[in-house]
């Protein structure tokens, strides 16, 4: 794992297509902005872990995974819309 120190408004580039910007640092919380092509999934780690856990529980219980996956897809679509809206407000 690469560990970098950054201050507010500084960026990190990942490849040619992904830019991570430190938006602000307040107390113990860091706000970051991520610019990435639409085909790149950007997920919070805890959300992905929750989906994996639910999927495992569904398999054990013999339930379909489809509802969990549909819920994740809805959340991702909502996140992209809100990111687009906030990005357009800043410009």
Fold and architecture overview:
- The protein is α+β, with helices and mostly antiparallel strands and 91 residues long.
- The chain folds into two domains: 1-38, no CATH class; 43-91.
- It has helices at residues 45-61, 66-90; strands at 11-14, 18-26, 29-35.
- The longest helix has 25 residues, at 66-90.
- The two termini are 33 Å apart.
- The model is unreliable at 83-91 (pLDDT under 50).
Characteristic key phrases:
alpha+beta, 46% helix, 2 helices, 3 strands, disordered C terminus, 91 residues
Strand content: 15-25%
Q: What characteristic shape results from the CA principal axes?
A: extended
DSSP helical segment count: 2
The tally of structural domains comes to: 2
The separation of the N and C termini measures 33 Å
Placed side by side, the strands forming the largest sheet appear as 1-2-3
Helix-residue proportion: 40-55%
Mean pLDDT: 77
Sheet with the most strands? 3 strands, antiparallel
